[in-house]
Structures
1.
Amino acid sequence: MTTLRDLARHLELSVTQVSRALNGHDDVSEATRLRVEEAARQLNYFPNRAARRLVSGRSGVVGFVEQSFAGIEREEILFATVTGLSEEFSSRGMQFVLHLAPKASGPERPDIVKTYDQLVRGGSLDGFVVTGPRPGDVRIRHLMENAIPFVVHGRTEEAAPHPFFDIDNHGLVLHLTRHLGALGHRRIGMVSGPQDFSYVGARQRGFEEGLAEFGAAAAPEQLRNGPMTEDFGMIAAVQMFSGPQPRPTAVICGNLRIAKGVYRALSALSLRIPEDVSVAAHDDVVAHERPELFFPALTVTRASLSESWGPLADILKEAIEGKDLKDLQKISPFSFLEGRSTGPARA
């Protein structure tokens, strides 16, 4: 079996140089790193992780704890998350593992911290990726209190005291609300995710702020929160447009699946888009649907979920290395694509 010393001798480099190249240290040039990695592949060199941990105190392995599988939509996102993060950590010389906790656990319950403790005490993981944060999230609080490196996809709050990579959830719904407000819409509905997630609260604040700029306010009967699914979008739209309350002239959807359900409901109710109702949504580029394939083409903000994996891997790697918190917090911008699903408010 090829050893680190064999690899160094083959490359005519020192063992230290080869080790630092394989571990992605900044003081090694890109050319040297690529040369070392290519030689490692050719000679079938595999790092001894037990030895690495003895030298550096780290295993080179990070983890992601998942509690349950909640439907095909959740499974799609989980698959995209695991495959995307695995690829990015692998390219940085690290290993990424998925750990499935008992289904009875949940991020809002204290028993989930036992899973993290078991993995850390076992000495096999250097840090964690956390997703789906909630305000006061016990997972994040526990990891912070015990100085365990981690990164969150999202934030517990706007001025979060932890490492994160997030999209501007407040800003993207504010942008959609302003777009609709400029078209004369004042009664705007919103169909979004479960209220206990932090990103949902950020989006609702953007929605309320946008309406206030036009002298309007969010009506409780025009807000719907639930699973980010097509079925929920359809049910929510039927409820909005079938009751005695004033109907909205526009609807903002949390994702494309919800938008697809809203389209179906409006069609069943013989309401035209955008002549009777304007529809806009956020596109995280995960579902098979595409905004340009809607009829009419959907107006969206867009921030691809896949563009999160690289920054999350970088931030966790830097958190493990002890970088300052200010360098471990990043917000991704979004783009805006105007389709044909939004138009002037009907009188």
Note: The CA atoms of residues 170 and 206 lie 5 Å apart.
2.
Amino acid sequence: MGFNDVLKKSFLEGVNATDFSITSVLLTLVITSLLGIYVYLVYRLVSKKQFYSKSFNISLVAMAMITAAIILSIQSSVVISLGMVGALSIVRFRTAIKDPMDLVFLFWSISIGIICGAGLYGMALILSLCVTIVILVLESMPAASASMLLILNAEDAGVEDEVTTIVEKYVRYYRVKSRNLTKNGLDLVMELRIKTNEAEMVREINKLPKVESVSLLSHDGEPA
């Protein structure tokens, strides 16, 4: 028997589907769903969004179960695995994920499906516990004060020195982001990390004679 015959025989043996009992399939899907529900609860606990997306959270559980089913199907036959790879390669997901934590939970859910589909239930449980501990510990760590933007319009460019003197009393750190001088006056944007009483600072700056308007806005970034 030549090498080609051995290779052909090996491939044909792999084509034959491996028998999966209903009990083993149900066991895998039940364990996967339980771990997916665990991810659902953790996401609900740590989510700090203004508008909580329940549909996305539910999709995490479904994603884990679907992934586990795909892994079971791939294990059953070479033909199915090749067909599955071809089918999944043409899928395009157009939904953008804006929050990095959503991406973490999505990969967590997919990983659970892959690991449970391979029959490594203990590893999936250990992974879930470790990820939960890391997320909760890092979430509980104290954060520094968030940066804010001070936007000021004044009739005279000379008012900048007075504004800087007032700002230094209330902030830990400041930096001029934009300084626009025109014939009509000054447009100034400063990044601030305020240590206390931002409302009083805004009122004090607004009392300056040459200041037309002053605004304090939250920065898009999060505190470190």
Note: The first strand starts at residue 148 and ends at 154.
